[in-house]
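sanity check this chain:
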Amino acid sequence: MIAKKTYNFDGPSSMLVHINTTPLIDVMLVLLIMLIITIPVRLHSVDLNLPKKTSKLTVDKRNIVKINIDSFGNVKINNRLVDNRKDLKILLKNIAIQLPKKKVYIISHPKSIYADTARVLFEVRKAGISEIGFMDIVDI
């Protein structure tokens, strides 16, 4: 701050205060430019590579039901092809009633459509099966 004493011939003397903002603006611009340069450019796409499974899952194979969904959307329950959605509902209801302690594992091919997997998952939940898991395609 620079204070200057000014003389006013019409009245009492007063102090006139001036603030020189040029150095402040210069410093702020330099900091802004440094910030812009140091921030890395972020891409909008995300490459996601999931780790491969290294150990085998130890599961009693007599106590599980495997539902396979291949890359074309075909559904198999314990290697038995299910023709349509109605048959899928019936088979899942029978599994829920006859084998209440069985665990259901859904094995979805990596190239399958998400809607197929979501549809099967919805039908499994609707049948009343609560023990649901997902297995890797390697475990088949």
Q: What stands out?
A: The chain has a mean pLDDT of 79.
